[in-house]
Design brief:
single chain, alpha/beta, Rossmann fold, 8-stranded mixed β-sheet, 10 helices, 8 strands, 18% strand, disordered N terminus, disordered C terminus
Length: 315
């Protein structure tokens, strides 16, 4: 079993996203295959399209897009270990000419301006990048007329700074309010915003009754959990493992009783021409003209989900 090395700047304890990624199993992101299919439908994904998945993890969604829709797929993730493993797997599956993955972060995507027909920001997009910088970059690399789709955890109620920090550290993500994501996308020329709430079992967009964030205990058997925690110990030590176990109880209470977090799909179209590349900090400060949501766009939800929220659906 290879040792796990923490990324520079990583937390002193593993997040839930870290633990899920240490599993040998390949899991669809929150929302499962139904949400991945909905992304393809809303974006009009078709054969020959250039598709980028940001925060792609093990490339499960990316592989699905390539196999099912005949696109040319690219992925970016900050985790060098996953990038290497996924590259090897794609090669074994003979997907190497149609799917490739690179190490990088959402605030500095390793691509030229305006080259992708569809850009998908999965939940790992903000693990090592701020929301403002990530929004600027996904817009920059999308062709005019191309589609941006974000699938992100969102705060469904005001959260005080201390709780926000605890939840963000535990999950390994940086949730935003829906209104903030919409504002950032508009500022960078993404308009016609459509929002779907994938927080509840009862959503009209899902055929089954799969929770958007099934928790760590539900996803893995006891032997699997021990194996994941052993791998976490090699990177974070016993103190890190003990911290995440202790933190789990408090976070579980906040997410289940107070229902602070939901899952939203936000889709828009990149408008206009694209200016030459600029540093992410400059790009984040630029704004486009006024934008108007499409009639199908939904206002930011004010009620919270009745669901228990955790991390991943199994493929």
């Amino acid at each position: 079993m290879s040792s796990i090395t923490r990324d520079e700047g990583a937390d002193l304890a593993p997040s839930m996203l870290d633990l899920v990624r240490l599993s040998p199993r390949r899991l669809f992101p929150p929302g499962g295959v139904d949400l991945v299919r909905q992304i393809a439908l809303l974006s009009g994904m078709s054969e020959g399209d250039e598709v980028l998945v940001v925060g792609c993890g093990k490339g499960v969604s990316l592989e699905h897009f390539v196999r099912e829709y005949g696109v040319r797929g690219s992925g970016v993730d900050h985790d060098a270990r996953l990038v290497e493993e996924t590259t090897d797997r794609f090669r074994e599956l003979e997907l190497g000419t149609r799917a490739q993955i690179q190490q990088g972060t959402a605030d500095a995507l390793p691509y030229r301006d305006a080259i992708f027909d569809v850009v998908v920001g999965e939940i790992g997009m903000t693990t090592r990048a701020g929301a403002r910088e990530a929004a600027a970059e996904v817009a920059r690399v999308t062709k005019p007329g191309g589609t941006v789709v974000l699938v992100q955890p969102v705060w469904k109620a005001p959260v005080d700074p201390v709780r926000r920090q605890v939840l963000s550290e535990h999950l390994g993500l940086r949730p935003q309010m829906l209104v903030e994501w919409k504002r950032l996308l508009r500022e960078h020329g993404v308009s016609g915003l459509l929002v779907e709430d994938w927080s509840d079992d009862e959503t009209a967009f899902r055929g089954g009754a799969a929770k958007p964030f099934p928790d760590f205990a539900e996803l893995f058997s006891l032997p699997e959990k021990f194996g994941i925690l052993r791998r976490a110990w090699s990177g974070w030590g016993w103190e890190g493992v003990k911290t995440v176990i202790a933190r789990e109880r408090e976070v579980h209470r906040l997410l289940t009783r107070e229902r602070l977090l939901g899952l939203d799909l936000i889709k828009g179209v990149r408008e206009g021409s694209v200016e030459p590349s600029a540093p992410a900090a400059e790009a984040a400060s630029e704004t486009s003209g006024p934008e108007t949501d499409s009639p199908a766009a939904t206002p930011e939800p004010e009620s919270t989900s009745e669901k228990e929220l955790s991390l991943f659906d199994e493929s």
